[in-house]
Amino acid sequence: MINPAAAQEIKMEIIPVTDTIRQVITSNMLLTANHPWYIDGWVYVANEATLRMEAGTVVNILPTAVNKQDGRHSGGLVITRGAHILAEGTTTLPIRITVERAPDQGPCGLLILGRAPVRKGYTPFRDLTFGGNLPEDSSGVIRHLHLHYTPAVGKGFRGGLLLLGAGSRTITEAIVTHALPVAGSGLKSGKLR
Q: What domain of life (predicted)?
């Protein structure tokens, strides 16, 4: 087994052995484009790790996490403060993230939690930490991403893409979200280019 600290130090990337990813990613990881990947519930990229996706990668989010307050199922990918995502698709090979439907679905999608200053009072999730004092923070690069999801009913984050405290060095380009019946992307505090 590879020591995660050693992998970080020499910028190694681990390719998962199974196609289903669960819980927490603490080492640099590469999702290849040769087969679909599955995110089971909420998966967190933490410990300053980098998650890289090749152009053309397909990721399916399985909303299996049950919300303690309302019992609805949710799931997605959370890039925590200090961690990074490098998802660089192309116009011909975009990265595709699709949320599988659940009958009692809560919010699902991709959350980027940066270390840039945020406005006080916005707390879409009680248990997530985001924001800080680094206006030029980078949470990574997302280019040519297609995100398909079913919006949750209710107030607050309904699904899709949410950037919280993303700094000015976080790069987002050519992102398309597909939602029925309403769109659900948001930028809450931070400055992107």
A: Bacteria
